[in-house]
Specification:
The protein is α/β, with parallel strands linked by helices. Helix content is 39%, strand content 20%. The model has no long low-confidence stretch (mean pLDDT 97).
Length: 386
């Protein structure tokens, strides 16, 4: 292990490089890349790396970047790409194709607001655009977690019981361009952690079709298989956490990260870096005698419903903070977890940090001040940045 000062963008690229080299005795590595702020530095860093058996392909669009990954994964290679915002939207057709073809592409997403109007700062709306399309989604809170999760994503995506793309999300500029110490393992450790990529339905010496036209009952069978694999990925991830700890001597965070939540009467639920801010608020309010806790949803797809339901049990009030908005509805995370609370629990939606606005401790305290007098949930509340 060695400590390196890296941005999350560079950390994601370095993790992908280590994973690429770990497949040198297999069918190698391939990455299709195209620049878009704020993910550009990830692909630039990847392009500078030496990979013994692999290639980084610079293409003319995000759509083509994922097409390269689809072709490489179909041939049995380990694959990676990165993008953001409207680039992800342009890539969406091929992201869906990769998911439905059950190809284990790993993608780092630097979350950025969709435009127009144009904005280059953080918002989860871009990655959440694909929440229903069969891709696993992680949301990270710091650089070390992002690095570790990219390594984990290759193991999870390529597990024979999973076989689907994995998105590892970091908030644009908040993480992508913030430099922090990352504990980087040795190549031998990564080799031990990551088995050689083995895609059972890859194209090879025996000709067969991939992505042919299907009849309705065939689609039903494949969607059932995909759904079962997606739901089972929660347990697969739990096993990977154990193996990660054995090899690297540190433990990956759980699918949902609880903080002082056991005896809490009020919960703050969030994703990404807002979770770290919420934990500071919890500490401050605990000193004042308020029974407040935090729950950070780290694995959003598949949604770990049973774990969330267990943490929600017995809570009186829950503030769900979304750095996104589903127009005409409210916060996406709120919509997903609202039904998991006990009957009578007040689960209020708060929208904050849209377009990259700061979400500071005082903003979360204002949400709780708004929540405590409520006897029922109201319309989503928009919290404006200071």
């Amino acid at each position: 292990m060695s400590l390196k000062l890296l941005s999350a963008n560079h950390g994601a690229a370095l993790a992908a490089t280590l994973a690429a080299r770990a497949n040198r005795a297999g069918r190698g590595f391939c990455s299709g890349v195209y620049p878009i702020t704020p993910s550009t530095e990830c692909m630039e860093y990847l392009c500078l790396q030496e990979i013994e058996k692999g290639r980084v392909v610079k293409v003319e669009s995000e759509h083509s970047a994922m097409a390269v990954c689809i072709g490489a994964a179909s041939a049995g290679a380990r694959t990676f790409t990165t993008t953001s915002s409207n680039g992800l939207a342009y890539m969406a057709e091929n992201c869906i194709a990769a998911a439905l073809l059950r190809l284990p592409v790993v993608m780092a997403v630097a979350n950025r607001t969709l435009g127009p109007p144009w904005n280059i700062w953080a918002d989860h709306g871009d990655s959440l655009l694909l929440r229903d399309q069969g891709l696993i989604q992680f949301y990270c809170a710091d650089n070390q977690e992002l690095f570790d999760t990219v390594l984990c994503a290759f193991r999870l995506a390529e597990d024979q019981a999973v076989m689907m793309p994995v998105m590892v999300c970091m908030e644009g500029f908040i993480l992508s361009h913030t430099t922090a110490q990352i504990d980087v393992p040795e190549q031998a450790q990564v080799d031990e952690f990551l088995p050689l990529t083995a895609i059972p339905h890859r194209l090879g010496d025996t000709p067969h079709a991939l992505g042919q036209v299907e009849l309705p009952h065939q689609v039903e069978v494949h969607r059932h298989q995909h759904l079962a694999a997606m739901n089972g990925a929660v347990d697969v991830y739990a096993g990977i956490r154990d193996e990660f700890e054995r090899v690297f001597d540190r433990r990956l965070p759980d699918a949902v990260v609880a903080y002082r939540a056991e005896d809490a009467e009020t919960l703050i639920v969030s994703m990404g870096t807002i979770g770290a801010t919420a934990e500071r608020v919890v500490d401050r309010l605990r000193e004042q005698g308020q029974k407040v806790g935090s729950l950070r949803v780290r694995l959003f797809r598949p949604l770990p419903m049973e774990a969330i339901r267990a943490w929600f049990a017995g809570k009186q009030r829950i503030a769900v903070v979304d750095r996104d908005v589903s127009l005409g509805f409210g916060g996406v995370l709120w919509g997903e977890v609202n039904a998991l609370a006990d009957p009578g629990t007040v689960v209020q939606s708060y929208l904050a940090g849209l377009g990259g606005g700061d979400v500071r401790p005082e903003h979360i305290e204002n949400m709780l001040s708004d929540l405590l007098p409520r006897t029922s949930a109201g319309l989503p509340a928009m919290m404006e940045a200071a």
